[in-house]
Amino acid sequence: MAAENNNNLNPDLLTEEELIKFLRIPSVSKAGNYHNVIENLKRVRGLPRIHVCRKALYPKKAILEWVEKQTDVGK
Q1: Distance separating alpha carbons of residues 65 and 29, to the nearest angstrom
Q2: What is the DSSP secondary structure assignment for residue 72, as one 8-state letter?
Q3: Which residues of 19-55 are buried (b: 16+ CB within 10 A; e: fewer)?
Q4: What's 10's DSSP letter?
Q5: What single-letter DSSP state applies at residue 58?
Q6: Neighbour count for residue 58 (Cβ, 10 Å)
Q7: How is the chain split into domains, by residue range?
Q8: Are 22 and 63 a contacting pair, CB within 8 Å?
Q9: 74 — pLDDT class (breaks 50, 70, 90)
Q10: CB under 8 Å to 63, separation ≥6 — which residues?
């Protein structure tokens, strides 16, 4: 049970709510529905995810790599 609690503090697979907080979407988006922001990132920017039991989960390592690739370096 202790290992399970540790995983919840820093999970390798994020839920959509955890991803919204991880990407700090409430701080940078004026959208009323943050789910729509995630859907747009999936559709337009290829946000990485996997599906488990018909639920999208977001691997933290893949998200960090995706952020690196999306980073605009002085363009």
Answers
A1: 21
A2: -
A3: bbeebebeeeeeeeebeebbeebeeeeebebeeeeee
A4: S
A5: E
A6: 23
A7: 2-70
A8: yes
A9: low
A10: 14, 19, 22, 23, 47, 48
Asked whether the predicted pLDDT for residue 75 surpasses 80, the reply is no
**pLDDT value, residue 72:** 83
> Residues near 23 by Cβ (< 8 Å), separated by ≥ 6?
63, 67
Tokens 């701080």 identify what position?
27
d(CA 45, CA 71): 12
Q: What is the CATH number of domain 2-70?
A: 1.10.10
Which two structure tokens, joined as six digits, stand for 38?
Answer: 């995630």
Q: Is the pTM of this model over 0.70?
A: yes
